[in-house]
Amino acid sequence: MARRATVEEVRAVCTEEELGCARTDEIAPLEAIVGQERAVRALEFGLEIDDRGFNIFVAGLPGTGKNTAVQSFLENVAKSKPTPPDWCYVYNFKEPYNPRAIKLPPGKGVAFARDMKEFIAAARREIPRAFESEEYAKKREETVESFNARRSQLFAALHQRAHEAGFLIQPTPTGLYIIPVIEGEPVKDKDFANLPPEQQQEILRRREELEEDVASTFREVHQIEREANQAIRDLDRQVASFVLGLLVRDLTEKYAAIPAVLSHLEAVQEDIIENLNLFRGGQEGEQKGPPWAREDPFRRYEVNVLVDNSGIAGAPVVMEYNPTYNSLIGRIEREAYFGALVTDFTMIRAGSLHKANGGYLVIPVEELLRNLFAWDGLKRALRERQVVIEDASERFGFFTTKTLQPEPIPLNLKVILLGNPFFYYLLYHYDPDFQELFKVKAEFGTRMDRNPENIRKYAAFFSMLCEK
């Protein structure tokens, strides 16, 4: 006769003998995925192929443990992978609106930023000292005296020619005044009018010739002044170059294997030399570039460490549970300045794609599709294999404002989408890009064999969860 079974009769109970332990700390934690051999093989396949398009969609119903299992699996794989490089943004002295990206070995980004800060501080301290030295003052005085002597010789020769032509050159606040001289006495205007017409004509003729001579002399004087100014500028550049050469020597040796850093150091030195007044304590010279560059001229010598992998052993594993466009691609922050929003390269912030670069990025697909522009932004980055930081409004042509356009950063990572199988088939049938970018499907099943081996593995898996 049929009867209703009780809860106790149908509930499967695991004994301590089956589990192999009475407490989770009595069994070694298990990092592997339990009972999902097919999904594991698919994950391993997708991770091993280093080619565009072999990203992974992990499909599974809620409650199958795919999120925790995938994270644990990836973290275990990532331990044996190399740590990816750091990335920094620096000021572009030729194109201020296009910050340059610099790749450094892992952990060197923060050190480079610190070294640049100390270098600029030393330059601001040592350059004024060099220009206050007696040696510099002596060389500058010699240069000025040399050109003053040439100018005095020109004026002396001009006065001599004027005397021989019968004229006196008298300086006035408005220029040089040419006065005729007769019998050693200057001729006043009223006396000039009483002279015979022939004599007046002769004096006027000689005066015109002398005026041409005066104009020619003044052109030579102006040329001498230009040469003098250039000589002083060359002297200043020589002094500044010598000081900077001493200060930058250690940096060039430290970063000799990184051409991008050496190139940036050269650009920094050239910019300092072109803007010596900033370092000599004088008035700021003409500053080119965006408005913010003129407000804080020393900020352009800073280093923005975008990605710092100094604390990572192996490849990064990033779980992005809020996959908005900005959280994936990165963003350019702005701050209010006298009623306007301004920005600079130090306000560029990394997205999950930057942080996971060289490793693995895990995203819940439902949250990804729920956020406007996030899916399109991710696809673009994977297609082009680079991350371009820009506002979504500009990317999709809503409106355009003049802002920064940072140099793209090369992208090399695996993206793992997590979600219900429904979303896999939805994207597979209605988005052609999905088929090209996510060629691997790892499906988590809802059932597994209940045998002693799996029971012990499950206990070890719980041990891992409790340990975390």
UniProtKB/TrEMBL annotation:
Keyword Coiled coil listed: yes
Coiled-coil ranges (or none): 200-227
An example molecular function term from Gene Ontology annotations: peptidase activity
Positions of the Lon protease AAA domain: 314-444
InterPro entries recorded: AAA_32, Lon-like_helical, P-loop_NTPase
Annotated keywords: Coiled coil, Hydrolase, Protease
Record's keyword annotation contains Coiled coil: yes
Lon-like helical domain location: 86-119
Gene Ontology BP term (one): proteolysis
UniProt-listed Gene3D superfamilies: P-loop containing nucleotide triphosphate hydrolases (3.40.50.300)
Name assigned to this protein: ATP-dependent protease
Organism, scientific name: Ammonifex degensii
Lineage: Bacteria, Bacillati, Bacillota, Clostridia, Thermoanaerobacterales
